[in-house]
Amino acid sequence: MRTVAIVGVGLIGGSFGLALRKAGFPGSILGVSSTGTIESAIRCGAVDRGASLEEAAGAADLVFLAQPIYGIIATLEKLKPLLGKYTLVTDAGSTKQAISEAARANLQADQFLGGHPMAGGEKRGVEAGRAELFAGRRWILDVNSANQDHPTTRVLRKWIAEFGAQEVVMDAATHDRLVAWASHLPQLASTALASAIQDCMPAAQAVAGPGLMDMTRLALSSWDLWNDILETNKPEVAAALDGYIAKLQALRADMAREFENGSGFAAGLRK
């Protein structure tokens, strides 16, 4: 693998470039993003230079799509005539079914490897990127018979291990069901808690400790990014919300009763 193209050089895309360099990748890293973003990415060492999508797709052995979900889908719709014969496309999208469907409609089966590094933060932009972002995190891959023997697939998996990430293989539907609980539900719970305090008891912030900061940190995340995530995973997110709301209602019901048999108000959580 001699050339990598990163499309969308923000927090994840920039961190991917920085992680490649830290792990010893000796090749060229091209960035496809706005002029200002590319200038910042070059300064921090995440990419070597900017390029158009046409140039980057034609030159790269690996194209890493790190845009918001609908941006990834739009790029997939443009890529087929631009790619080199042996180029592999992977992505970092937070939901996988909609992206996988777009890839199947626009690319050959062995040209696309769906991915999702379970890493990020409430801050956006390449300036927030860091080479260690993926260390100790899971990196989900939708490896199948069509792409597992692609030479760049093997190289990418090696680099993911070099980043210190833990590879997890699962299909797109399973991914979306699990991350609805592990990622999307915590985001919504954090947002709802922050909104409830702001609307109902803003004075509580004057006495807040680290617990409240920990619980509401995710609420600082960009809503335009999360809009794509929630829009493309509605059924699974709704199911996760239903499960969480049921537990909150059980807690409330327990608090309304006298403690019986020493069960306490958390009895509803154990049902």
Helix content: 40-55%
> What Rg is obtained from the alpha carbons, in whole angstroms?
21 Å
* Quantity of strands, as a count: 9
What is the general shape?
globular
Description:
- By secondary structure, the chain is an alpha/beta fold.
- The protein has two domains: 3-170, Rossmann fold (3-Layer(aba) Sandwich); 175-270, 6-phosphogluconate dehydrogenase C-terminal like domain (6-phosphogluconate dehydrogenase C-terminal fold, Orthogonal Bundle), CATH 1.10.3660.10.
- Helix content is 48%, strand content 12%.
- The protein is built from ten helices and nine strands.
- The chain has helices at residues 11-22, 35-44, 53-59, 69-79, 97-106, 151-162, 172-200, 210-216, 223-231, 234-256, and strands spanning 3-7, 28-32, 49-50, 62-65, 88-91, 112-113, 115-117, 138-141, 166-169.
- Strands 3-2-1-4-5-6 form a six-stranded parallel beta sheet, with helices on both faces.
- Strand 4 (62-65), helix 4 and strand 5 form a beta-alpha-beta unit.
- The chain is globular, with a radius of gyration of 21 Å.
- It starts with a strand and ends in a 15-residue tail after the last helix.
Précis, in short:
With 271 residues, the chain is an alpha/beta fold. Helices cover 48% and strands 12% of the residues.
Question: Which tags fit this structure?
Answer:
single chain; 271 residues; alpha/beta; Rossmann fold; 6-phosphogluconate dehydrogenase C-terminal fold; 2 domains; six-stranded parallel β-sheet; three-stranded mixed β-sheet; 9 strands; 12% strand; globular
